[in-house]
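Need a sequence for this fold. Nothing fancy.
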């Protein structure tokens, strides 16, 4: 059974940064991810607020970070962590079981991220992959020249609406509140691009025969229903944190289900740290990277 000083679970921006910092501090560490490195970061069409880049796609940045990480640590992609067991060992405090192997480690950094939140609208599951999508960069190409709706009001929703518009789709933004939550510069870009918006509306049903043909909207102020024709429904309404492993370890969560951490990224469980979207705090790429650096350094000091 291989032994490590630090095992990082999740290879998103935070996990990769933690691996870089941990390796440069001289520790033996491993990053494990059940998918490809990058997680939801791979889906970001473009960022204009990441330091050092005027404009960069999530996939491009992930590939750069991955190349840097594997120079400093081991990286296992497509390997799911199924269980973390506390041990009685005074040095190696945990056994990490995966779909492929078992490992011993002195510390664990949880960078398990989150997944797309669903609308739970009628027809959503039925038309998934048939016009319903949660990833503009994955599926946007297929909707060039077609009418589509983007549901959501945060940064991600507006970024993806702009991306889809640039691809040549005819985009309408739908948001349940009377104003968007996204940063002002994104709202300004939506106006400049001439993207249509429908505020104070929720998607109650997604309709069609073989493929999506329309959505039923409910006015949140009057309760009135209306039908809006569309070929595609792109959904960006938040994320659900992946805390299954945290719960196994007895890690404390807040009311929203996110991991509670201190300023050193420590959880309430000794030698367990957490970073990124699974934690309480601002959901931003640069924040996850900073937290990864802090967690790796905290783990290093706790092992010294």
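Here you go.
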């Amino acid at each position: 059974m291989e032994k490590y000083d630090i095992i990082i679970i999740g290879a998103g921006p935070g996990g990769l940064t933690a691996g870089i910092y941990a390796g440069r501090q001289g520790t033996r560490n491993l990053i494990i991810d059940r998918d490809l490195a990058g997680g939801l970061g791979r889906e970001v069409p473009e960022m204009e607020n990441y330091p050092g880049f005027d404009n960069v796609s999530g996939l491009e940045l992930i590939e750069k970070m991955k190349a840097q990480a594997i120079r400093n640590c081991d990286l296992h992609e497509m390997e799911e962590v199924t269980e973390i067991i506390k041990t009685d060992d005074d040095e190696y405090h945990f056994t990490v079981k995966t779909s492929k192997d078992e490992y011993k480690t002195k510390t664990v950094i949880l960078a398990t991220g989150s997944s797309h939140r669903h609308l739970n609208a009628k027809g959503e599951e039925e038309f998934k992959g048939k016009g319903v999508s949660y990833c503009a960069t994955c599926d946007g190409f297929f909707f060039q020249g077609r009418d589509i709706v983007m549901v959501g009001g945060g940064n991600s929703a507006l970024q993806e609406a702009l991306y889809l518009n640039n691809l040549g789709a005819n985009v309408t933004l739908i948001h349940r509140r009377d104003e968007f939550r996204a940063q002002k510069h994104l709202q300004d870009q939506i106006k400049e691009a001439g993207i249509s918006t429908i505020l104070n509306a929720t998607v109650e049903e997604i309709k069609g025969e073989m493929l999506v043909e329309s959505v039923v909207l409910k006015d949140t102020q009057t309760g009135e229903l209306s039908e809006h024709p569309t070929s595609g429904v792109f959904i960006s309404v938040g994320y659900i944190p992946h805390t299954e492993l945290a719960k196994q370890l007895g890690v404390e969560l807040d009311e929203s289900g996110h991991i509670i951490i201190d300023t050193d990224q420590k959880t309430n469980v000794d030698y367990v740290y957490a970073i990124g979207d699974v934690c309480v705090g601002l959901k931003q790429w640069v924040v996850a990277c900073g937290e990864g650096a802090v967690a790796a350094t905290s783990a290093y000091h706790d092992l010294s």
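For context: The chain has a mean pLDDT of 95.
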